[in-house]
Design brief:
single chain, eight-stranded mixed beta sheet, 6 helices
Length: 219
């Protein structure tokens, strides 16, 4: 059974990688129920009550309301890096178990617990803040090559979630554009870019960038 292993909220840390000066990438598991709501179209707000996003120019908003990462992928990196990786250390709000996050389709919907419905929007793109936080040589290149980026999610139905909640895939669109395919198209395999246009639920800004790249314009 797929489930939420932990719900993780930000603990502010200094961020030498960006002018913002503070980052919420370090997220820690919390006990009890957490309210999930629609944050609003503009960048900045998180979908989880008590979570904080500091780089409001690039993160948050409806298309990045919640970030999920699989425990199975954290375990891969724990072995690769030779150190323990707790839930939330990659900046994810939801650490999942038993769910193929990389294989999730753009537009796929998950019910979490009894109330909340989330929709898969697009993959996470590694940035300088992530690299600085992990402090591993060549981290962005290594993370990109592994191509298990985790998924940003929209909030379709608000409500409360907590660790232990079951996750059920309640609908899947009629295309083959997964989180993994989308990430590889946007990073290492540009020949895949035309496939992404079949995913209606891909964020508008991402679709526009895909079209520009297909047409040979600056992204």
């Amino acid at each position: 059974m797929a489930e939420v292993l932990s719900v993780n909220l930000a603990v502010p840390r200094p961020n030498p990688a960006k002018d913002v000066g503070v980052t919420g990438i370090d997220k820690h598991p919390v006990r009890g129920k957490v309210l999930v709501s629609v944050p609003g179209a503009r960048k900045g707000p998180s979908g989880l009550a008590g979570d904080t996003i500091y780089d409001t120019a690039h993160h948050g908003g409806d298309d990045q309301a919640v970030y999920a990462y699989a425990r199975e992928d954290l375990d891969h990196w724990a072995t690769e890096l030779g150190r323990e990786l707790r839930g939330g250390v990659f900046g994810e709000n939801l650490t999942t178990r038993g769910l193929d996050v990389t294989g999730a389709l753009i537009g796929e919907r998950w019910r979490v617990g009894d109330e909340v419905v989330l929709e898969v929007a697009d993959p996470r793109t590694p940035c300088g803040t992530f690299a600085n936080w992990m402090a591993e040589r060549g981290w962005i290149k290594r993370f990109t090559a592994h191509a298990a980026p985790g998924a940003y999610l929209r909030v379709i139905t608000p409500g409360e979630i907590q660790a232990g909640d079951p996750i059920t895939v309640v609908s899947r669109p009629d295309h083959d554009v997964t989180i993994g395919v989308t990430f590889r198209a946007l990073t290492t395999e540009p020949d895949l870019l035309p496939r992404l246009l079949a995913a209606d639920a891909l964020p508008v800004a991402v679709k526009a960038r895909v079209r520009r790249r297909i047409e040979g314009q600056p992204a």
